[in-house]
Amino acid sequence: MTPPMLPVLQDIAAYLDELRSALVSEYEALTVNDAERLTAIADTKQRLSDILGDLDRERSELLREAGLDLGRTGVLAYLDRQSASDREPLDVLWQRIETLTRDCRRLNQINGIVIEKRRRRAENTLRILQGQTGDSDLYTPRGTTPRRPGPGHTLAKA
């Protein structure tokens, strides 16, 4: 008899793989500023997130019914309860899920860093266009330096 967790883990792995691909595509779209593609990818990521949330609830319910912890510890205990023939495909899937989860987390962090850098750059550009200099005292609004080290900007004399 097939363990009830098998199809759930298969679906989780498949959707995580799809999410990983979406995150790679998002990075590529970020590098070329493809706003249209980014919008489509955001929709895909939301859809996948919803599906993965439903699957996680299904997995948690199976663990709850088995009287196990709902997290990683519970999954490992569930795997331990399986026969050798049932456990092998479950082990392979669980390892795949853990790897895909780490990959997705890493890719999402990288994309977040890229987005944050772009946001800061856009804010700085907007501040400059609005005539704001921020905390920097490099130049006055007239284009001169606010503090002169001395006549003729001599920094040192021999």
Helical proportion? over 70%
When the domains are counted, the total is 1
The third-level CATH topology is Methane Monooxygenase Hydroxylase, Chain G, domain 1
Strand fraction band? under 5%
Q: Give the beta-strand count.
A: 0
Number of helices: 4
N-end to C-end Cα span: 91 Å
The CATH class assignment is: Mainly Alpha
Compute the average pLDDT: 89
Morphology call: elongated
CATH architecture label: Up-down Bundle
* CA-based gyration radius: 27 Å
- Let me know the CATH homologous superfamily: FlgN-like
Give the helices and strands as they follow along the chain.
HHHH
Biggest beta sheet summary: none
Residue stretches low in confidence (pLDDT < 50, at least 5 long) are none
**Which structural category fits the helices and strands?**
mainly alpha
